[in-house]
Write a structure and sequence with these properties.
This protein has 339 residues and is of the alpha/beta class. The protein has 14 helices and 13 strands.
Length: 339
């Protein structure tokens, strides 16, 4: 991460009072080597706090540096003993560990249940049985609402999952909300729109599409769009997402027991997004790759045909958060990091 980017992020987070609030805190981050976790840790790198980042055995953790004391834990979140050991040390838990592919979840629902629901239950049960009242922030997805009939989408929309992945995310949310209502934890759920921007590459071909296409354009490859590509997506920059989680912990008492929609508040069609990538890469490289429409593979999940734009007004009103990155600026930053 460049010093210029570090300085810009630090200034923005300092303006929110985040650095002062997190000083002296002990934080557990699951999925600690992952995409959102990596950006959240970089936002805290100059805070004098203690961070435990937990990921699966064999994980290679990226160095963080800075003032924060970062401790790496290798453990399986499906193991109750992992939670016993990790939670004992934490004031705040950012729970990012998950299986994130719709297609993998649909192919093996029991396995997806095991990784996307049961760890939440085990986390909460340790809190309950040990009487450890933690602040828990959970990363979820806006696709739980299914195929919304109108836009933008806020927290009042009914949950209508159309995939196993979304069903299990909703179940994990419900467990968290229940334990919060019972007073065992203070917790909130952030439902994320399409996240993009610098960070570790996704291991799944159906995740991180904007970043994948940016890499392809930089390599001079054609960008492809399935069908007409007129479905709307809300693309939210990963640094804005990290900022949302940091603010959520600060305002956990106000957010307690709820879920909140996190996005940029602007929709782009898939075709518009791919053409913007091609245009911005052309500014950098002097050559513009073509954008071609192709037939989609079969079968496609129905969730691929959704339209989505976020209404973040409730979360913004409770926390003061807002998205800072326009899509053009975010793509330019991603290009610089990948070049």
């Amino acid at each position: 991460m460049s010093e210029k980017r570090n300085t810009a992020a630090r200034d923005r987070f300092d303006g929110a009072g985040i650095h002062a609030w997190y000083g002296g805190k002990t934080i557990l981050v699951t999925g600690g080597a992952g995409y959102i976790a990596t950006n959240l840790l970089h936002a805290l790198r100059d805070v004098k706090c203690r961070i435990f980042r937990l990921d699966r055995p064999g994980t290679v953790f990226e160095p963080v540096g800075g003032e924060a004391e970062v401790n790496d834990l290798e453990a399986d979140v499906r193991d109750p003993a992992a939670w016993e050991a990790a939670l004992n040390r934490a004031d705040i838990v950012f729970h990012f560990a998950a299986q994130t592919s719709t297609y993998v979840a649909n192919a093996d629902p029991p396995a997806d249940l095991d990784i996307n629901v049961l760890p939440m239950v085990r986390l909460l049960e340790v809190c309950r049985t040990r009487n450890w009242h933690k602040v828990i922030l959970f990363s979820s997805t806006v696709t739980i609402v299914g195929l919304p009939e109108r836009l933008p989408v806020d927290e009042s929309f009914p949950d209508r999952p159309v995939t196993v992945y979304d069903l299990h995310k909703m179940m994990a949310e419900q467990y968290l909300k229940y334990y919060a209502a019972q007073g065992f934890v203070t917790a909130a759920v952030l439902r994320l729109a399409n996240v993009y921007g610098p960070g570790p590459a996704s291991s799944r071909p159906d995740r991180g599409i904007l970043n994948q296409m940016t890499r392809r354009a930089l390599s001079g490859e054609v960008l492809t769009v399935y069908g007409r590509g007129d479905q709307l997506r809300d693309y939210v920059h990963v640094e804005d997402v990290a900022g949302a989680f940091l603010r959520a912990a600060m305002h956990a008492a106000d957010l307690n027991g709820g879920h909140y929609v996190i996005g940029s508040g602007r929709g782009y069609s898939l075709t518009e997004a791919m053409n913007l990538i091609a245009d911005r890469v052309a500014v950098k490289t002097g050559r513009r790759v073509s954008v071609e429409h192709v037939d989609p593979p079969s079968p496609q999940s129905p969730i691929e045909f959704r339209n989505f734009v976020a209404d973040t007004g409730r979360f913004a009103g409770l926390t003061g958060w807002k998205a800072h990155y326009t899509l053009e600026r975010g793509i330019d930053q991603t290009i610089e990091r990948l070049s």
